[in-house]
Design a protein that fits this description.
The protein is of the alpha+beta class and 266 residues long. Helix content is 21%, strand content 29%. α3 (129-135) runs parallel beside α4 (151-164). It starts with 5 loop residues before the first helix and ends with a strand.
Length: 266
Amino acid sequence: MCIRDSSILSMVVALLFALLSLQAVAQPCDLGRSANGSTDSQRVKIKNVIDGDTVRLQDNRLVRFIGINTPEIDHETGQSEPFAEKAREFLQAVIDKQQGSIQLQYDSENEDRHGRLLAHVFTLDGRNIQASMIAEGLGVWITVPPNLLYLECYRHNERKARQQRSGVWGAQFLTPRETASLTRQDRGFQWMRGKVTRIGHGKKYLWLNFGDNVAARVRKDDLNYFQDKTFATLKNKTVVMKGWLFPYKKQLVMGLRHPASMEIVE
């Protein structure tokens, strides 16, 4: 068919670009460029799977997966959280299918304070393993800057898992905890909900207070990630946020590193 009308030609070209864009959005998770613009990845051999988000390499180094937090396995008592063993079994099956090898792609920071490697992990044909696990509801998406390379990929897959109530999202234990119900025993990874009653400014942190016992703090160094957020408008708003709770002085505190970890609900 010969297209002579320029307006029709323009429409066809626009449609083709739209289709290409849809394909790009549908596959945003495959192995791509790293934070420094490189497409380099490192093929490694796995010694054993620790849990759903951590593996040990043959040289005994530990790799903590970026962008996902899976339910905790209690290696001492066996009283693991729901879906913890399923997450480990899923990851083990993926690695077994790859004959024990996967690819690592590093982001802006490739080591945490515990000395573990931080990486996005892929099958040998470039499929994102974290994205697959999040889509199956075998873990929750977390955002810890500066490692933000596949943020939109992980966000999209968690949204899909939540809508379909897959895995942990269909389980009773994974619901936001009201900040008023939290105690000093509620440490570690939490999903909490509460009304911001006060906003404070310190030398190193900006503070969002939920009553007297629970607060979230934002490092001043991370404020550049919140350019589209005006914290003053959060007063008296109800928010939910995911992160790690720890005792600090007389409060429980959650570190808020990126706006993707918080959602305004009321």
